[in-house]
Specification:
Layout lengths: L2 H41 L9 E6 L2 E2 L4 E17 L5 E6 L6 E2 L4 E6 L1 H71 L5 H68 L2 E3 L4 E6 L6 E2 L11 E16 L11 E6 L7 E4 L2 E7 L4 E9 L10 E9 L5 E4 L3 E6 L2 E8 L2 E12 L3 E6 L7 E3 L11 E5 L8 E2 L1
Parallel strand pairs: 1-22, 3-23
Antiparallel strand pairs: 1-21, 2-16, 3-10, 3-15, 4-6, 4-9, 5-8, 6-7, 8-10, 10-14, 11-12, 11-15, 13-14, 16-20, 17-18, 18-19, 19-20
Helix pairs in contact: 2-3
Length: about 475
């Protein structure tokens, strides 16, 4: 075969082989792109080939949006006292140490102050002397009163005598006048006239003496009355001195009582700063350290500071749950006992206290924990995630999509509080509704949808 003809056949054969290869490649590529779809369509059951937009749904939670606040808090002894010495002295007795359980009225320590004992003995003796002086003054008053009564009796007797002598003088004057008339008529002797005249003069003298006695005894009575007033004044002075002495005795006893330190309530000793024999200086003399410290621990105060935005909602009686870091697994539920009613201008917070019974003494002073306060528990309406809302909400009105019989329906609702995560729906929804979460922008009212359970939570959020 000529060489030119053999080259032509080889060229045609090469073209034919290239065409076969290219055709096989194109057929393989088409099979690669179309076969997975065909396989999926073949494997998919006829019941799952339903048309419709797939959406997530949630059921509203019963009850409106609960307002809570969760803040750090610390436990404090309900009562505590640093017990100082009122007087300076040497520590003689100390019956407690840190951790000792004490009862109200228990003596915790006693100081030795000899000079106070001597002072008490001295003022006691002075008081007894003052009491004796009062007794003497009372006796002088009684004596003066008796003298006054006797003087008054003598005045009365003198006046009676004066009246008797006055009567005798009157009778004697009449006798003298008769005798004198008879003597002028020469009916009697002259010596009888002289006798009656003498008797008349004697009666006159007796009257003058009686009058003088009355004056004398009245003056004695007045003097006795003055002595009564004087003795009564002396009695008042004596009683005043006795009262001063008694006051000094009471003060001395009080100062002696200050040498003993008593517990003001049931509790535990949390500090002891001196040992037996140590000199304890009173605060008046520069002492700055208490002998012991006692805290009441059967009831604790949990203090928490409420942020300004939550202050309008907190009230005494609000339910509180307390959890301490040092007591894992335990929680304490008590109401708010009291609030300060005033903000701290530095932190813009307000102090609230919760009284927590501590019979087992598990809670210790200064324990740190978390305090959750139920500020406002809404029982009406329902709660849904904020992502369920469609469009903008204004004037308490909003819109959501619900699923009814496989189709979405747009529904108007009345909303309350919105935390950004949850929305309180006051009307328009119930807990049996299926609300679409994160509705797609192209979702239309009445569109057929396929549903799946959403993962969004509708639980209330605690503010921190």
């Amino acid at each position: 075969m000529p060489a030119s003809r053999r080259f032509s056949w080889l060229f045609l054969g090469s073209l034919l082989a290239l065409a076969v290869v290219l055709g096989g490649s194109l057929l393989g590529a088409r099979s690669f792109f179309t076969s997975p779809v065909a396989a999926i369509q073949a494997a998919e059951p006829a019941s799952t080939k339903s048309v419709g937009v797939r959406v997530e749904i949630v059921s509203p939670t019963k009850g409106g949006l609960t307002r809570r606040t969760s803040q750090p808090g610390s436990a404090h002894s309900f009562e505590s006292a640093d017990l100082y010495a009122k007087v300076s002295g040497f520590l003689k007795i100390q019956q407690v140490d840190i951790g000792s359980r004490v009862k109200k009225g228990d003596m915790l320590a006693e100081l030795d102050v000899p000079e106070l004992v001597e002072d008490a003995e001295g003022v006691t003796a002075a008081y007894q002397q003052a009491v004796a002086e009062v007794t003497q003054a009372e006796a002088r008053v009684d004596n003066a009163v008796a003298d006054h009564l006797a003087a008054q009796a003598r005045v009365a007797q003198a006046k009676a005598d004066a009246e008797r002598f006055d009567a005798e003088l009157s009778f004697g004057q009449k006798q003298f006048d008769r005798i004198k008339e008879l003597s002028q008529l020469k009916g009697i002797e002259d010596r009888l006239v002289d006798e009656k005249q003498y008797q008349l003069q004697a009666a006159q003298a007796n009257k003058r003496a009686a009058a003088s006695s009355v004056v004398s005894f009245e003056q004695q009575a007045n003097a006795a009355e003055s002595r009564i007033k004087l003795s009564k004044a002396d009695l008042l002075v004596a009683k005043a001195k006795a009262a001063v002495a008694e006051s000094r005795v009471d003060r001395a006893k009080l100062m002696l009582a200050y040498t003993k330190i008593y517990s003001p309530y049931d509790g535990v000793v949390t500090a002891r700063n001196y040992h037996i024999g140590a000199f304890v200086r009173s605060p008046e003399q520069g002492g700055q350290t208490p002998i012991v410290a006692v805290e009441r621990t059967d009831l604790m105060r949990v203090k928490v500071r409420i942020p300004e935005r939550e202050i309008p909602y907190i009230q005494p009686g609000d339910r509180v749950t307390i959890r301490f870091d040092a007591l894992p697994g335990k929680q304490f539920t008590e109401p708010v006992a009291r609030i300060a009613e005033s903000e701290d201008p530095t932190t813009r917070t307000m102090l609230a206290e919760i009284d927590v019974p501590n019979p087992d003494r598990m809670i210790r002073d200064q324990m740190y924990g978390r305090v959750e306060i139920m500020l406002d528990e809404a029982l009406q309406g329902v709660t849904i995630p904020s992502t369920c809302m469609v469009g903008d909400s204004a004037d308490g009105q909003g819109q959501v999509y619900v699923v009814e019989n496989g189709r979405c329906k747009q529904r108007k609702v009345q909303i309350g509080r919105d935390t950004g995560a949850q929305v309180e729906v006051l009307s328009g929804l119930s807990t049996t509704d299926s609300v679409i979460v994160r509705p797609a922008g192209g979702l239309a009212d009445g569109a057929e949808v396929a549903t799946s359970a959403g993962t969004a939570s509708a639980q209330p959020i605690a503010h921190k």
